[in-house]
Design a protein that fits this description.
The chain has 232 residues and is α/β, with parallel strands linked by helices. It has two domains: 143 residues, P-loop containing nucleotide triphosphate hydrolases (Rossmann fold, 3-Layer(aba) Sandwich); 65 residues, Orthogonal Bundle (Helicase, Ruva Protein, domain 3), CATH 1.10.8. It has eight helices and seven strands; from the N terminus they run ββαβαββαβαβαααα. A hairpin with a 6-residue loop joins strand 1 and strand 2. Keywords: DNA replication.
Length: 232
Protein backbone atom coordinates (compact mmCIF):
# COMPACT_ATOMS: atom_id res chain seq x y z
CA UNK A 1 0.00 0.00 0.00
CA UNK A 2 1.12 3.55 -0.66
CA UNK A 3 1.68 5.87 2.27
CA UNK A 4 -0.30 9.05 2.63
CA UNK A 5 0.89 12.56 3.38
CA UNK A 6 -1.03 15.26 5.15
CA UNK A 7 -1.96 18.71 3.86
CA UNK A 8 -2.72 17.78 1.15
CA UNK A 9 -2.91 14.00 0.87
CA UNK A 10 -0.32 12.89 -1.68
CA UNK A 11 0.62 9.22 -2.22
CA UNK A 12 4.29 8.45 -1.62
CA UNK A 13 5.78 5.90 -4.04
CA UNK A 14 7.23 3.09 -1.96
CA UNK A 15 10.19 2.70 -4.33
CA UNK A 16 11.28 6.35 -4.23
CA UNK A 17 13.39 6.36 -1.09
CA UNK A 18 17.01 7.26 -0.39
CA UNK A 19 18.21 3.68 -0.86
CA UNK A 20 16.96 3.59 -4.47
CA UNK A 21 18.43 6.95 -5.50
CA UNK A 22 21.49 6.65 -7.74
CA UNK A 23 23.59 9.68 -6.71
CA UNK A 24 25.79 10.40 -9.76
CA UNK A 25 27.55 13.39 -8.23
CA UNK A 26 24.69 14.35 -5.92
CA UNK A 27 26.33 12.91 -2.82
CA UNK A 28 26.63 16.29 -1.10
CA UNK A 29 22.93 16.99 -1.56
CA UNK A 30 21.98 13.56 -0.22
CA UNK A 31 24.31 13.98 2.76
CA UNK A 32 22.78 17.39 3.51
CA UNK A 33 19.26 15.95 3.39
CA UNK A 34 20.19 13.12 5.74
CA UNK A 35 21.79 15.59 8.13
CA UNK A 36 18.88 18.01 8.18
CA UNK A 37 16.40 15.18 8.76
CA UNK A 38 18.52 13.74 11.55
CA UNK A 39 19.30 17.07 13.20
CA UNK A 40 17.12 19.82 11.68
CA UNK A 41 19.28 22.83 12.46
CA UNK A 42 19.23 23.94 8.82
CA UNK A 43 15.83 25.46 8.16
CA UNK A 44 15.96 25.35 4.38
CA UNK A 45 17.50 23.39 1.49
CA UNK A 46 17.03 24.26 -2.17
CA UNK A 47 17.61 21.64 -4.88
CA UNK A 48 17.69 22.62 -8.52
CA UNK A 49 18.22 20.93 -11.85
CA UNK A 50 16.55 20.10 -15.14
CA UNK A 51 14.10 17.34 -15.95
CA UNK A 52 14.97 13.82 -14.74
CA UNK A 53 17.61 14.91 -12.25
CA UNK A 54 15.89 13.25 -9.29
CA UNK A 55 14.46 16.29 -7.52
CA UNK A 56 11.06 14.73 -6.89
CA UNK A 57 12.62 11.40 -5.91
CA UNK A 58 14.64 13.12 -3.18
CA UNK A 59 11.58 14.97 -1.88
CA UNK A 60 9.67 11.68 -1.74
CA UNK A 61 12.65 10.15 0.07
CA UNK A 62 12.73 12.90 2.68
CA UNK A 63 8.97 12.68 3.22
CA UNK A 64 9.12 8.89 3.53
CA UNK A 65 11.91 9.17 6.10
CA UNK A 66 9.87 11.40 8.41
CA UNK A 67 6.63 9.58 7.67
CA UNK A 68 8.23 6.33 8.85
CA UNK A 69 9.01 8.10 12.12
CA UNK A 70 5.36 9.22 12.39
CA UNK A 71 6.42 12.84 11.98
CA UNK A 72 3.89 15.03 10.13
CA UNK A 73 4.96 16.10 6.65
CA UNK A 74 3.47 17.89 3.67
CA UNK A 75 4.31 17.69 -0.02
CA UNK A 76 3.14 20.39 -2.43
CA UNK A 77 3.70 19.42 -6.09
CA UNK A 78 3.27 22.76 -7.84
CA UNK A 79 2.94 21.13 -11.25
CA UNK A 80 -0.54 20.26 -9.93
CA UNK A 81 -1.31 23.68 -8.52
CA UNK A 82 -4.63 23.78 -10.37
CA UNK A 83 -5.80 21.25 -7.78
CA UNK A 84 -4.39 23.11 -4.78
CA UNK A 85 -4.55 26.70 -3.61
CA UNK A 86 -2.13 29.12 -1.91
CA UNK A 87 -4.27 28.88 1.23
CA UNK A 88 -3.13 25.28 1.66
CA UNK A 89 0.27 26.42 2.92
CA UNK A 90 -1.33 27.98 5.99
CA UNK A 91 -0.42 26.03 9.10
CA UNK A 92 2.33 23.99 7.44
CA UNK A 93 4.89 25.61 9.74
CA UNK A 94 3.52 23.34 12.49
CA UNK A 95 4.77 20.19 10.72
CA UNK A 96 8.19 18.55 10.89
CA UNK A 97 8.88 18.81 7.16
CA UNK A 98 7.46 20.77 4.24
CA UNK A 99 8.52 19.86 0.68
CA UNK A 100 7.61 22.08 -2.26
CA UNK A 101 8.29 20.62 -5.70
CA UNK A 102 8.87 22.69 -8.86
CA UNK A 103 8.62 26.21 -7.46
CA UNK A 104 9.33 27.51 -10.97
CA UNK A 105 5.71 26.61 -11.75
CA UNK A 106 4.43 29.56 -9.70
CA UNK A 107 6.79 32.22 -11.08
CA UNK A 108 4.84 35.44 -11.74
CA UNK A 109 1.81 34.14 -9.82
CA UNK A 110 1.44 36.89 -7.23
CA UNK A 111 -0.76 34.93 -4.81
CA UNK A 112 1.47 31.88 -4.79
CA UNK A 113 4.69 33.88 -4.51
CA UNK A 114 3.33 35.76 -1.51
CA UNK A 115 2.03 32.55 0.09
CA UNK A 116 5.44 30.85 -0.14
CA UNK A 117 7.18 33.99 1.15
CA UNK A 118 4.84 34.14 4.15
CA UNK A 119 5.43 30.42 4.79
CA UNK A 120 9.18 31.06 4.92
CA UNK A 121 8.64 33.72 7.57
CA UNK A 122 6.32 31.57 9.66
CA UNK A 123 8.73 28.63 9.54
CA UNK A 124 11.58 30.85 10.70
CA UNK A 125 9.44 32.29 13.49
CA UNK A 126 8.15 28.90 14.69
CA UNK A 127 11.56 27.21 14.30
CA UNK A 128 9.90 23.80 14.03
CA UNK A 129 9.65 22.73 10.38
CA UNK A 130 12.35 22.04 7.83
CA UNK A 131 11.61 23.37 4.35
CA UNK A 132 12.93 21.70 1.18
CA UNK A 133 12.15 23.28 -2.19
CA UNK A 134 13.04 22.23 -5.73
CA UNK A 135 13.21 24.25 -8.92
CA UNK A 136 14.59 24.06 -12.43
CA UNK A 137 16.98 26.99 -12.02
CA UNK A 138 19.01 28.74 -9.30
CA UNK A 139 16.82 31.08 -7.20
CA UNK A 140 17.76 34.27 -9.06
CA UNK A 141 16.98 32.71 -12.45
CA UNK A 142 13.51 31.33 -11.68
CA UNK A 143 11.64 34.33 -13.04
CA UNK A 144 10.01 35.02 -9.67
CA UNK A 145 8.83 38.62 -9.36
CA UNK A 146 8.75 39.03 -5.58
CA UNK A 147 12.28 40.18 -4.59
CA UNK A 148 11.85 39.08 -0.97
CA UNK A 149 10.97 35.54 -2.07
CA UNK A 150 14.07 35.39 -4.28
CA UNK A 151 16.06 36.45 -1.22
CA UNK A 152 14.45 33.77 0.96
CA UNK A 153 15.17 31.07 -1.65
CA UNK A 154 18.85 32.00 -1.42
CA UNK A 155 18.93 31.72 2.39
CA UNK A 156 19.82 28.10 2.97
CA UNK A 157 21.97 25.42 1.40
CA UNK A 158 21.68 25.18 -2.39
CA UNK A 159 22.58 22.08 -4.42
CA UNK A 160 22.50 21.44 -8.15
CA UNK A 161 21.44 17.99 -9.38
CA UNK A 162 22.69 16.67 -12.73
CA UNK A 163 20.95 14.28 -15.15
CA UNK A 164 22.20 10.72 -15.43
CA UNK A 165 24.25 9.59 -18.40
CA UNK A 166 23.16 6.38 -20.14
CA UNK A 167 25.75 4.30 -18.28
CA UNK A 168 24.45 5.72 -15.00
CA UNK A 169 20.89 4.81 -15.98
CA UNK A 170 22.03 1.19 -16.28
CA UNK A 171 23.23 1.32 -12.68
CA UNK A 172 20.06 3.10 -11.55
CA UNK A 173 17.86 0.44 -13.19
CA UNK A 174 19.84 -2.37 -11.58
CA UNK A 175 19.67 -0.65 -8.20
CA UNK A 176 15.90 -0.23 -8.52
CA UNK A 177 15.57 -3.90 -9.51
CA UNK A 178 17.48 -5.00 -6.40
CA UNK A 179 15.15 -2.85 -4.32
CA UNK A 180 12.24 -4.79 -5.84
CA UNK A 181 13.91 -8.09 -5.01
CA UNK A 182 15.45 -9.29 -8.27
CA UNK A 183 18.65 -8.90 -10.28
CA UNK A 184 18.46 -7.17 -13.65
CA UNK A 185 21.08 -8.52 -16.10
CA UNK A 186 23.28 -5.83 -17.60
CA UNK A 187 22.30 -6.79 -21.16
CA UNK A 188 18.62 -6.29 -20.28
CA UNK A 189 19.29 -2.91 -18.67
CA UNK A 190 21.29 -1.86 -21.74
CA UNK A 191 18.48 -3.02 -24.04
CA UNK A 192 15.93 -0.98 -22.09
CA UNK A 193 18.03 2.18 -22.18
CA UNK A 194 18.54 1.83 -25.93
CA UNK A 195 15.03 0.77 -26.95
CA UNK A 196 12.72 2.48 -24.44
CA UNK A 197 12.21 6.19 -23.81
CA UNK A 198 15.35 7.28 -21.95
CA UNK A 199 13.32 9.31 -19.48
CA UNK A 200 14.30 7.69 -16.19
CA UNK A 201 10.80 7.73 -14.73
CA UNK A 202 9.52 5.95 -17.85
CA UNK A 203 12.31 3.38 -17.53
CA UNK A 204 11.35 2.72 -13.92
CA UNK A 205 7.69 2.30 -14.89
CA UNK A 206 8.71 -0.21 -17.56
CA UNK A 207 10.86 -2.04 -15.00
CA UNK A 208 7.88 -2.32 -12.65
CA UNK A 209 5.76 -3.65 -15.51
CA UNK A 210 8.39 -6.27 -16.36
CA UNK A 211 8.66 -7.31 -12.73
CA UNK A 212 4.91 -7.88 -12.49
CA UNK A 213 4.86 -9.79 -15.78
CA UNK A 214 7.76 -12.04 -14.74
CA UNK A 215 5.99 -12.90 -11.49
CA UNK A 216 2.73 -13.66 -13.28
CA UNK A 217 4.41 -15.84 -15.93
CA UNK A 218 7.07 -17.23 -13.56
CA UNK A 219 9.85 -16.32 -16.00
CA UNK A 220 13.21 -14.64 -15.60
CA UNK A 221 13.59 -11.21 -17.15
CA UNK A 222 15.64 -11.61 -20.33
CA UNK A 223 15.89 -9.65 -23.56
CA UNK A 224 13.46 -12.02 -25.39
CA UNK A 225 11.02 -11.74 -22.48
CA UNK A 226 11.29 -7.93 -22.57
CA UNK A 227 10.58 -7.92 -26.31
CA UNK A 228 7.51 -10.09 -25.75
CA UNK A 229 6.08 -8.04 -22.88
CA UNK A 230 6.75 -4.67 -24.55
CA UNK A 231 5.85 -5.88 -28.06
CA UNK A 232 9.20 -4.76 -29.44
Amino acid sequence: MEQQLTLPLIPLPEDEVFSTFYPNGSEMAIFALHEVLKNPETEFIYLWGGKNTGKTHLLHSACSHNDQLSLPVALLPLTQRRYISPEMVEGLEELSLVCIDDIDEIACDDKWELAIFDLFNRIKEKDRATLIITGNQPPKELGIKLPDLISRLSWGEIYQLSPLKDEDKLQALQLRALQRGFELPEEVALFLVKRVDRDLRTLFEVLNRLDRASLEEKRLISVPFVKKVLSL
